[in-house]
Specification:
With 172 residues, the chain is an alpha+beta fold. It has helices at 8-23, 85-89, 109-131, 152-169, and strands at 35-37, 42-46, 63-67, 94-97, 101-104.
């Protein structure tokens, strides 16, 4: 891939996801990354710069194009990128990173962000149970069949809720 590459709507989407995760408390100050694969060999990612103001204030201008090895596309400004994250993620949708929070992936950026929010909520509930000295019990495998199966419409609705909330509270 050579020449100027823009992806303006995708850059805005990644910036929105950054603001949303910060607003929901999943990313503090300047720490954290959101990325979106745009083709078989490249993704857009929020990288850290010396002049940045943090995830809560991320704009499309803070998003850069890199190859899957983390190398900046020609013409992109220099940033600091997490080099070992893809290896740690493997094929899983969520990866807990000791001392660094979590990483999430999905069929879409929205699904990855929602997975991160869900894991954070489950982790908080687990800590609350442990603080209350309540035992954690596993769900009986037979009970899974009674759990609701949420379709794409549900995830689209939840994403629209969070996106609207982020745009209202911290517009980019």
């Amino acid at each position: 891939m050579t020449g100027p590459v823009s992806y303006p709507s995708e850059r805005r989407l990644v910036a929105l996801a950054c603001r949303l995760l910060a607003m929901e408390g999943l990313a503090e100050t300047t720490l954290g990354h959101v990325s979106l694969r745009v083709d078989d060999t490249h993704c857009l990612v929020r990288g850290r710069r010396a002049s940045e103001h943090g995830l809560l204030f991320t704009t499309a201008d803070d998003i850069v194009l890199v190859d899957l090895g983390g190398n900046l596309h020609p013409g992109e400004p220099p940033v600091s990128l997490p080099s070992e994250l893809l290896k740690a993620m493997g094929e899983g949708p969520v990866c807990l990173l000791r001392g660094h929070g979590l990483a999430a992936a999905g069929q879409s950026l929205a699904r990855a962000v929602l997975a991160a929010i869900d894991v954070d909520a489950l982790a908080r509930l687990t800590v609350t149970c442990l603080q209350m000295q309540r035992p954690l019990t596993e769900i009986d495998p037979g009970d899974y069949r009674d759990l609701p199966v949420f379709g794409q419409d549900y995830y689209d609705q939840v994403w629209r809720f969070y996106a609207a909330k982020a745009e209202r509270i911290c517009p980019g």
